[in-house]
Write a structure and sequence with these properties.
mainly alpha; 5 helices; elongated
Length: about 150
């Protein structure tokens, strides 16, 4: 087995480029482990695992057959199914988190409106109290003979 020489610069945090994805597929076809591929790409093992899942999903969505995915990614049917399930869980987790954030925003908005309404009601009560104590004297209308 040849020695694995890591790239001089880390790719951590950088987007994946097409050339890098091609090298990833080649490494998988050669039977390299995710740890070995991580060293070659200057990324974490988890980043490699996640990107393989993302690529499998893109290929599936693009109409690639399971056979093409198995051959290119050196995965079996169970691994493909697990990759799809992991991606689905990730999407559902993100959607759930976004929904919770939206609900919290809505709750905050509702609470803010309630506070404003309470302030308005308090001011109206004060105004009603003032008007309740003041007697409004409306002069009687004068008849034509008094004018």
């Amino acid at each position: 087995m040849s020695e694995i020489i890591p790239p001089p610069l880390s790719r951590k945090g950088f987007p994946w480029i097409i050339e890098e994805e091609k090298k990833l597929i080649s490494a998988l076809q050669e039977g390299k482990t995710y740890d070995q591929i991580a060293l070659l790409h200057g990324r974490s093992t988890r980043a490699i695992e996640c990107h393989v899942i993302d690529m499998v999903m893109k290929w599936k969505e693009g109409g690639k057959s399971d056979e093409e995915i198995i051959n290119n990614f050196h995965l079996d049917q169970i691994q493909i199914t697990n990759a799809i399930l992991q991606k689905r869980e990730k999407i559902e987790s993100i959607s759930s988190r976004q929904l919770r954030i939206q609900l919290n925003l809505d709750t905050d908005s509702i609470n803010s409106i309630r506070l404003q309404l309470n302030e308005i009601n308090g001011k109206l009560d004060l105004l009603l109290g003032v008007f309740g104590r003041v007697q409004v004297i409306i002069p009687e209308s004068k008849t034509k003979s008094e004018v």
